[in-house]
């Protein structure tokens, strides 16, 4: 399409034959025809060959020459069009020199009536320009609405992502403060233990050295006295008068025997057992009393035990028995699953316990909500109020949900498993207590009492007959 203006008919020559608008960055091909740089490169990319859209000549390589003169003419024509009144400018068919009146739906081009009747547009679909404008405006309106909807969706997603980033940063800051405060407490305990031992060592050193110093003074006084006696004896030995010698010698002998009858050595030592013992272990044992949460003494609730389970007298271990016992079917008892709960539940705070699982091939551990089902068949998953990890012979250690079993990364099976419940933070975490490596964490906004949960698993022909044993805090 071109635009004819009677005084300025030359403007017809500054239109690109591809976009039918004034040239933008015009370039010349080796055949001499001119096109917009973006139009010709786009056409070559679509057709995957370098040819002139006007004459059809093909070129072995893309060689484009900038036509600055044509660019200046196009810019001048563009300014003339902007300065012209709408009534003075009409769309014109460059091929037939007729005003365009139709829109070819097949070729997506503006054409004149002569174009419509030509062989090139035979069997094509046409419509008046006004109808085409209305149709494309409706399509554009629909596309615009779709883009606005997508934009709103992305804005909402962007806001959620920003909030999540902020939440992660805030959570990281809280965890950093938690880590710093926890280790600061341990540093304080260790520093206090160190200073206490150093003070006791200094007191012992001062006590022993004081006693030894006093004794050393007494020894030195005796040495001085002895030296004086030796000097006197040497002088007596030189006495030439026999009578005088005997009289003085008898007196000196009696006196010396009375003065030097006692000689003592203070032989005391620093208590090596107190200051050179297993100091790290001693400090660790003392730190147990300051740990929070301290390892808890969990006691099993026999009233919740499935009739097939056998609970030890101290209620610290459980295993699967060989026969079903006759027990009262109280509401809190599990009647199908071989499960048992602890006697104490938690509604707040942080709590930690460890369970011995070394000789077992099948087990389940975690926490259960007070309202969780206990009767009939059910899967102990978070959807039912159970947050657990399991060891299955064919699956290894897994976290269990209603939809899947999530494998846990382990270099070797744990001998002990630690369970941490942070009720306020809505967190249940599991650890390989051998090295305190993290196994899995559930998060949930807990609102009710939670009980430690245990399942010793089936006996598997005796290969899994060992009990689940809750570790005593003092045995850790």
Keywords, separated by commas or semicolons:
elongated, alpha+beta, 20% strand, 22 strands, 7 helices, 476 residues
Strand order of the largest sheet: 10-11-22-13-18-19-20
Radius of gyration: 50 Å
Q: Beta-strand level of the residues, as a percent range?
A: 15-25%
Q: Mean pLDDT score, rounded? A: 86
Would you report the number of β strands?
Answer: 22
Report the order of strands and helices.
EEEHEHEEEEHEHHHHEEEEEEEEEEEEE
Let me know the largest β-sheet. Answer: 7 strands, antiparallel
What structural class do you assign from the helix and strand content? alpha+beta
Describe the structure.
The chain is α+β, with helices and mostly antiparallel strands and 476 residues long. It is built from seven helices and 22 strands. It has helices at residues 37-47, 68-83, 113-117, 129-237, 242-259, 272-275, 279-288; strands at residues 2-4, 26-28, 34-36, 65-66, 90-93, 98-99, 102-104, 109-111, 126-128, 309-311, 317-320, 340-341, 350-356, 363-369, 386-392, 396-400, 405-407, 416-422, 427-432, 437-443, 450-455, 468-470. The strands form five sheets. It has a seven-stranded antiparallel β-sheet with strand order 10-11-22-13-18-19-20, with no helix packed on it. Strand 16 and strand 17 form a beta hairpin. Helix 4 packs antiparallel against helix 5 (242-259). The protein is elongated.
């Amino acid at each position: 399409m071109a635009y004819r203006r009677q005084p300025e008919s030359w403007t017809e020559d500054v239109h690109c034959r591809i976009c039918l608008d004034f040239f933008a960055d015009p370039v010349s091909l080796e055949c001499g025809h001119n096109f917009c740089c973006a139009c010709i490169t786009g056409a070559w990319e679509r057709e995957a060959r370098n040819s002139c859209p006007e004459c059809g000549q093909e070129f072995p390589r893309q060689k484009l020459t900038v036509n600055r003169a044509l660019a200046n003419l196009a810019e001048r024509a563009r300014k003339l069009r902007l300065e012209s009144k709408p009534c003075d400018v009409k769309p014109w068919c460059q091929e037939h020199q007729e005003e365009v009146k139709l829109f070819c739906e097949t070729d997506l081009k503006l054409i004149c009536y002569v174009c419509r009747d030509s062989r090139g547009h035979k069997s094509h679909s046409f419509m008046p320009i006004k109808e085409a404008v209305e149709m494309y405006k409706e399509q554009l309106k629909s596309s615009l609405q779709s883009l606005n909807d997508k934009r709103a969706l992305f804005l909402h997603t962007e806001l959620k992502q920003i909030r999540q980033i902020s939440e992660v940063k805030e959570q990281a800051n809280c965890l950093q403060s938690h880590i710093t405060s926890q280790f600061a407490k341990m540093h304080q305990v260790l520093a206090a233990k160190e200073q206490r031992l150093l003070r006791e060592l200094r007191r012992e050193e001062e006590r022993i050295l004081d006693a030894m110093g006093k004794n050393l003074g007494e020894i030195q006084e005796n040495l001085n006295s002895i030296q004086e006696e030796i000097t006197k004896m040497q002088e007596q030995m030189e006495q030439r008068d026999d009578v005088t010698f005997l009289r003085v010698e008898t007196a000196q002998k009696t006196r010396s025997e009375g003065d030097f009858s006692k000689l003592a050595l203070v032989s005391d030592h620093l208590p090596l057992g107190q200051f050179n013992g297993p100091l790290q272990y001693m400090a660790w044992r003392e730190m147990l009393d300051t740990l929070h949460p301290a390892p808890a003494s969990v006691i099993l609730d026999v009233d919740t035990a499935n009739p097939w389970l056998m609970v030890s007298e101290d209620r610290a271990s459980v295993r699967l028995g060989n026969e079903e016992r006759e027990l009262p079917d109280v509401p809190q008892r599990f009647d199908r699953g071989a499960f048992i709960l602890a006697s104490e539940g938690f509604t707040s705070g942080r709590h930690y316990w460890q369970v011995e699982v070394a000789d077992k091939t099948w087990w389940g551990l975690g926490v259960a909500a007070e309202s969780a089902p206990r009767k009939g068949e059910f899967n102990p998953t978070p959807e039912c109020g159970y947050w657990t990890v399991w060891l299955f012979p064919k699956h290894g250690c897994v976290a269990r949900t209603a939809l899947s079993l999530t494998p846990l990364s382990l270099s070797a099976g744990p001998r002990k498993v630690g369970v941490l419940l942070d009720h306020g933070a809505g967190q249940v975490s599991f650890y390989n207590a051998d090295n305190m490596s993290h196994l899995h964490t559930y998060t949930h906004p807990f609102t009710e009492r939670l009980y430690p949960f245990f399942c010793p698993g089936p006996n598997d022909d005796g290969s899994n007959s060992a009990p689940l044993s809750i570790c005593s805090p003092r045995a850790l």
